[in-house]
């Protein structure tokens, strides 16, 4: 039996939430918890529902009411299975590279390969010998590219958020570093893809640089994301990536973008 997947965003209006639920049930005329209960009964059994709820710490009575209706239905009817899943919701990007109002659980975005917004932040410093970038080594527990050297900090743009705010948040969370908003320099957009097994990650990346001469010993690393950090001179890094076997998921395109912005 195929699961019916329902998305409940805590940032959505009551009307939008019931409209989304009605669409997934294939039944019109759902506008409140009472009509939803009737629709579930009309849908019949057996039935299996996976209900994804966005993970914002925001109260939304309609979300709680819908959750209560499905819970009660499963308690009263053994052939109705309900699973509630908390997940980060991401806005979907359309074929014109515009962020839409449509959002979807991150897990399913990665499963289905929809284009979605992310940020990459490179901490850089200039020295006589060249331009250095701060690399992070991704934690061993990471699902995508574990134990690989990567951009200084990165992350997904949650629904309703904007690129620059997310960039500041990711630098703080992953490196324990608070930087001024004005120090983030936007240097361009790029596409990035990762496909392995059931993961189809398709990203539109906003790339930023931040000229900060920091001491790596002063950073507070988020252990679930980052295992270590180090400085690397760009041209030396490019050479190592080309001629040596170094585990990395670093974009050569982004290193070229940095050089163009700096020189």
Describe this structure in words.
The chain is α/β, with parallel strands linked by helices and 263 residues long. It folds into two domains: 4-87, Barnase, Chain D, CATH 3.30.370; 90-262, Nucleoside Triphosphate Pyrophosphohydrolase. 30% of the residues lie in helices and 36% in strands. It contains seven helices and twelve strands. The chain has helices spanning 14-25, 33-43, 61-76, 106-112, 163-175, 234-243, 252-262; strands spanning 4-8, 47-54, 80-87, 89-93, 99-105, 115-127, 130-138, 149-150, 153-156, 185-196, 199-211, 226-233. The strands form three sheets. Strands 6, 7, 8, 9, 10, 11 and 12 form a seven-stranded mixed β-sheet that branches. It has a three-stranded parallel β-sheet with strand order 1-2-3. Strands 4-5 form a two-stranded antiparallel ribbon. β6 (115-127) and β7 (130-138) form a beta hairpin. The longest helix has 16 residues, at 61-76. The chain is elongated. The termini are far apart. The model has no long low-confidence stretch (mean pLDDT 95).
